[in-house]
């Protein structure tokens, strides 16, 4: 097993260049700028950022602006004509998230639309000004000395160059002249106010969003009595998206970890998001372990005569071809016992999934018989179909094929077991397939889809992984 230091080093390599890397994580949650924009806007709303803008102390800030000489006298001469100066309307327009000039960064722009009003003895009504400006900040990947990389938000900047202030309507020459002087005083004061009052809220909202992403990743996924859990190993930004690189572990019903999924030496092909808001890419071995947890090794018996009389008759006829004496031993209550051996294997290709299983099938002459008449080892392959129903990942087996049949034990002498291939396939199709699909019927809950704001999702498979993307 690799040392913790080696593991951190590998995670760093993945974060630096995940696409085409020689190492692949157990899973990757890729988030488009659209998701970042929506979630950050939601957190700004929760933090009541608009109310902060409405409370900006414009007049007191102008009074405090450092000035000397002629400028100081000019400020005083303007402000003696102003009794109130307040924000009367404030809104945060649609955020913009776009690639930065450097690798591993995204630019976040927060456009503000404000209306301020002041009153003056020169006019009975308020003088209104329309103010537009933009707070800009950067999402970056920061790597600690220990090698852990995570998302951070840099300070707001470039506020002043985006500032536009205009009067909402024309007034008298004297009022217009006074208003222009007020605008000149607001031009340096307003960006400083936004930086000191709003930018801390933007940073806090970003932290809220980051914690939300961490929490939604860590939600335990139920697999009957087992659970699958993810955690964020590191973060990366490339191809206009944020990628959360995930580790995974499988836990039993007692909460003990039965399997860790760490870095693999097999490359994981990452899909490009394009117009997809997010994608969850889960490596093949993690998916295989999840399916195996839903279908653990087990055994069950079926009384064919009462459940599947046609197969009961066909089995007797098939054995009669081998030995009439053996067929005569089969009573009205002949029983088939099916043992699912070991762990199933998941085989993935582009848009194709199959499951390989090892099965032992025993034929008993009656339900009371202690020794089987026949014991067969079967290497079987089933077509597997992954699909989504709402927020649940579903899996069903459509067909099953007996690839190889081995005679393990026989009470009727040696024979080529392929003689029974037809009846064995029918038994597996009629007995095993419905049994396994019944266990898979509840699906795998993926609360992540709902937490990211989507009602539906779709799934697809590649040679390396299972990929979940939203459909609405």
From TrEMBL:
InterPro entries: Bactericidal_perm-incr_a/b_dom, Bpifb1, Lipid-bd_serum_glycop_C, Lipid-bd_serum_glycop_N. Keywords: Signal. GO terms for molecular function: lipid binding. GO terms for cellular component: extracellular exosome. Residues 1-21 form the signal peptide. Residues 36-262 form the Lipid-binding serum glycoprotein N-terminal domain. Pfam families: LBP_BPI_CETP (PF01273), LBP_BPI_CETP_C (PF02886). GO terms for biological process: innate immune response in mucosa; negative regulation of toll-like receptor 4 signaling pathway. This is BPI fold-containing family B member 1. It comes from Vicugna pacos (Alpaca).
